[in-house]
């Protein structure tokens, strides 16, 4: 089973999409909440995370969200995601700045 993680940010009421910063000085420090989805493709399967909530990681962090653009990036491989049951809730801390993006898995629950 191969693992493939894609960020697709959506809210229940309307699609909300993340935007990459326009300049290197811009920074994001966001809390992303999503759901593990197991996708069957013929004889193989992959694991994806579909994000449904985006907000500030803490009170002092910056996290801008725009509806007219999307951002996709590959999350780091993590056995906790691959082994999580379909529908498990996940939380990531997403940070960007200085030309680098970083996603850190905070929790996996059912």
What can you tell me about this protein's structure?
With 110 residues, this protein is mainly beta. The chain has one domain (17-109). The protein has 1 helix and 6 strands. The protein has one helix at residues 79-82, and strands at 17-18, 28-41, 44-56, 65-66, 89-97, 100-109. Strand 5 (89-97) and strand 6 (100-109) form a beta hairpin. The longest helix is centred in the C-terminal third of the chain and has 4 residues, at 79-82. The chain is globular.
**Low-pLDDT regions:** 1-25
Question: How far apart, in Å, are the first and last alpha carbons?
Answer: 21 Å
Shape assignment: globular
**Widest β-sheet, arrangement of strands:** 3-2-5-6
Structural class: mainly beta
Indicate the mean pLDDT.
76
**The biggest beta sheet, please?**
4 strands, antiparallel
| Strand fraction | over 45%
Number of domains: 1
Radius of gyration: 14 Å
Describe how the helices and strands are arranged:
Layout lengths: L16 E2 L9 E14 L2 E13 L8 E2 L12 H4 L6 E9 L2 E10 L1
Antiparallel strand pairs: 1-4, 2-3, 2-5, 5-6
